[in-house]
Amino acid sequence: MLGLVGVISFIVILLIVIVFFIFNAVDFIDPTPIQIQLFGIHVTLIGGILLISTFIGTGFLTMMLGLALGVYGSFKSSDSGHEAEQAK
Which residues cross the membrane (predicted)? Predict the structure, then answer.
């Protein structure tokens, strides 16, 4: 039963991250790189809590998802390409 709770929590977190990327792709939201990095830190911390509370595999995957999200925020440019499009 506890394994099912861990899998469901990972699926919910994964869906939240997927919706974040979809909203970012269609320009519904335009987060700054620091906001993306902070979101990655929060996902990593949630993964750490899951890791401590006996959901080892799920917590590890969630922490890796948060790490990847933070790295994505580090390499995203702050202008998002909107200023370059408007200059044309």
Answer: 6-26, 38-71
Residue ranges in 26-78 assigned as alpha helix (H):
33-52, 56-75
Q: Residue 84 domain-assigned?
A: no
Contact partners, residue 9, CB within 8 Å, separation at least 6: 50, 55, 58, 62
Would you say residue 83 lies in a domain? no
Residue length, the chain? 88
Instruction: Answer yes or no: is 39 within a domain.
Output: yes
pTM of the model: 0.79
